[in-house]
UniProtKB/TrEMBL annotation:
This is Thioredoxin. PANTHER family: GEO12009P1. The keyword Transport applies. It comes from Microbacterium salsuginis. Gene3D superfamilies: Glutaredoxin. InterPro entries: Thioredoxin, Thioredoxin-like_sf, Thioredoxin_CS, Thioredoxin_domain. The gene is trxA. Keywords: Disulfide bond, Electron transport, Redox-active center, Transport. The lineage of its organism: Bacteria, Bacillati, Actinomycetota, Actinomycetes, Micrococcales. It holds the Pfam family Thioredoxin.
Amino acid sequence: MTAKATTSATFEQDVIQADGPVLVDFWAEWCGPCRMVSPILDQIQAEHPDKITVLKLNVDENPDLAMKYQITSIPAMKVFNKGQVETTIIGAKPKFALEQDLASYIA
């Protein structure tokens, strides 16, 4: 996992106040599909470092944020831009599908 982690303590600075779009991957250690999508998100981050930032948020360690952003199933990915959620992606997907969902940010 190369994506940086964010927490309840750092979320405001890492995500809400960030310059440019930030994809937050809401995940948990025990979640198999989360582990499947993690290397794909790492690849997307590595290929587009100047266009989107990928951060991971462990829902078990940060239940307050999971509740605030209504995370009912994981993996769930939300793209924040200027502090607002612009895009929500639910479930593990292959790389090409995630790139399609993120096209407006990484194209």
